[in-house]
Amino acid sequence: MSLHLVVGVDGSESSLRAVDWAADEAARHGAPLRIVHAYRWDRYEGTAFARELGRPSGHVTPDDILVVATRRARRHHPDLSVTTEAVAEEPEYVLLHEARNAAAVIMGTRGRGELADLLLGSVSLTVATEAECPVVVIRGAHDNRTTEGRHGRIVVGMADAPTAAVRFAYEEARRRGAALDAVRAWRCPAHDTADHPLLTGTPERLHEERAAKELEAALADAPPDVRLRRHTVEGPARRVLLTASHEADLLVVGRRCPGQFGHRLGRIAHTLLHHSACPVAVVPDTA
Fold this sequence. Notes:
This protein is α/β, with parallel strands linked by helices. It has helices spanning 13-29, 47-53, 62-73, 91-99, 122-130, 164-176, 203-218, 237-245, 267-275, and strands at residues 5-9, 33-38, 82-87, 104-108, 135-138, 153-157, 179-186, 228-234, 250-255, 280-284. It has a ten-stranded mixed β-sheet with strand order 3-2-1-4-5-10-9-6-7-8, with helices on both faces.
């Protein structure tokens, strides 16, 4: 991760937690951190930043937001290289533009209303769907910081072949000294029966064996210095990965390249971004 990291701030508590996470990540990679605020995020109340400044939320300016975010980033990393910018534009446009030259974009969840910290905001969803670089959405416990990983475990959802998401997960596990759990979900279709003429064993065993072979193929380029653990789990991938997120410090999933219908996030990543118990990294195939 040689380029800078970008974190979007919007006046919410979830964006301050994103700054904490991004600062830890930038320090670990020896990368500069760029903090970006879009003016039109002012429609949010900005109470978290108002508390930091000790003034009413209506008196918080874009410059104030950047000052507080920078102070927060350097709270644990005083020597971190930090640049900031406030832009008078829609946040989706600003962050997608920033993503073209970033190693990763980090964001909070930021839904609206009473469940704001539980729901994924439209900005986060759009950026995760369309960005040209990995996007990390900070979900889970409010004290979830990369330097204080509670589980020492990263989970990556496995496809049929090596992907950019898997390479991203290797690097994160190596940098953190964490175990990497490669999880391959498998299903046994209801129409498969033991007396099927093409099956010589129980359907469950055959499907699990195929999943194990596909998992090994997808891990063909695993670096020897990563503490890798392989898991084949029966069930829908969304459910399997959501369960794994409760004992992980980061959940990594891939995003396919745009097809004829443009950018598509996929049902698995979409579900994880809304419901994961830990931060989620969405990595495009081109990353």
